[in-house]
């Protein structure tokens, strides 16, 4: 158990819908990272937040957005969902940046 | 964009033997490299890391080697055990802290 929690574990929804994935980092960690893992693209970095501020951005679609709240938990919002958005979404946290990242168990999103 | 790739998608190893998993990276500016292990149904788990000012780092039963001349990274697992069966990813960080992952090598340990 990494100490990072993600909810929900599974999510099934339809195309065009919007979903919110939630992540609680390890106690004391200030950085939160979001990753997408799909069969064809592998593990892709989406976005990083540090102490509430966006720190780095990867290949995140405009339909996706994220935020980190004052209590340091983070949410990833996915809108106008497409079939290709079906993937595992992982959250990771670290004490600051360039530290070891601890991954959560992931949320499996299925878009039908 | 930059990417990190693994030489072999799969590796089968006899229990008790040593395993070597290879990775090639393309960005000579990368300064931090990490190996992750991902078991079925779980998130990636940190194994070991190395910074670009080092060429070798050892952990418990694992060693990471970095050859900056040929931009090559390897993970050595000593006395491979059934619990080592997983997908192994190498990752590099670019200067802006984004992790780029390779495609992964699936390691299967034969009893």
Any overview of this molecule?
- The complex is a heterodimer of chains A (112) and B (111).
- Chain A is mostly beta strands.
- Chain A is 0% helix and 54% strand.
- In chain A, strands 2, 4, 5, 6, 9, 10 and 11 form a 7-stranded mixed sheet that branches.
- In chain A, strand 9 (87-94) and strand 10 (102-103) form a beta hairpin.
- The model of chain A has no long low-confidence stretch (mean pLDDT 94).
- With 111 residues, chain B is an all-beta fold.
- Helix content of chain B is 0%, strand content 55%.
- Chain B is built from no helices and 11 strands.
- Chain B has strands spanning 4-6, 10-14, 19-25, 32-38, 45-51, 56-58, 62-67, 72-77, 86-93, 99-101, 105-110.
- In chain B, strands 2, 4, 5, 9, 10 and 11 form a 6-stranded mixed sheet that branches. A 5-stranded antiparallel sheet of chain B has the order 1-3-8-7-6, with no helix packed on it.
- Chain B is globular, with a radius of gyration of 13 Å.
- The mean pLDDT of chain B is 89.
- Classes of the chains: A mainly beta (112), B mainly beta (111).
In percent, how much strand structure appears in the residues of chain B? over 45%
Count of helical stretches of chain A = 0
Counted by DSSP, the helix tally of chain B is 0
Residue stretches of chain A low in confidence (pLDDT < 50, at least 5 long) are none
SS class of chain B: mainly beta
Spans of chain B of 5+ residues with little confidence (pLDDT < 50)?
Answer: none
- Strand segment count of chain A: 11
Overall outline of chain B: globular
Largest sheet of chain B: 6 strands, mixed
Q: Kindly report the oligomeric state of this protein.
A: heterodimer
Biggest interface found: A-B, 23 and 22 residues
Radius of gyration based on Cα positions of chain A: 13 Å
Structural class of chain A: mainly beta
The fraction of residues in strands of chain A falls at over 45%
